[in-house]
Write a structure and sequence with these properties.
mainly alpha; membrane; transmembrane; AzlC family ABC transporter permease; transport; cell membrane
Amino acid sequence: MTAAPTTADKQSISPAPRSAVIRDALGVGTAVGLSGFAFGATAAGAGISVPQACAMSLLVFTGASQFALAGALGAGAAAPAAVAGAFFLSVRNAFYGLRLSQLLCLPRAVRPLAAHWVIDETTAVTLAQPDRAAARLGFTVTGASLYVLWNLTTLLGAYGASALGSPQTWGLDAAGPAVFLALLAPRLRAGGRERATAVLAAALLLMAQPLLPTGVPVLVAALAAPLVLLADRRGPGRRGTVVR
């Protein structure tokens, strides 16, 4: 049963909190949007053309999955394995959408468009807000700023890398892994469940790397998340565990 809207949900945001939401949302959108440079360079290094890289950012718009796909293709993985790895990384956005749909309660006509902006960053900003009005504002500003900047920097990064020649010559082929690790680093400082997932995923990846074809080890590493969740539920202290 859905709870009735609270007074805070119905009231508009006062000027000070509104400016703070916009400032934080623009900060997140700008900081992450600049990573599009690295994706564009990584895509060029993987043999992906500039139009293909731009189309991916426009239509896929989920950074980690894009980096995974470009990185796997650049390492020589078969297209089905690369796509599968990117797909499994993006599945989490569906669960974000289930939570945000209840929180934002957007009109039906807007939901298909809003779903395209459901990613890690918009979810984090939205869930950090105290009421529905602030959540909608944070989601919209973060999504719009990040989408525009990510696509612009993808174009510039891919075109620039192509103009410079071989990305390996300039070390741009390392841009994707570096950004991916930078995005992962905050998770290692989070709760024990996140650290356990990261450590287990790394261990699975290292074990699978010499045994399986390129692109497949990342699919094996993705098993870390359900394994950790299963172990957490079966643990002796599961009743007192706080879900983060």
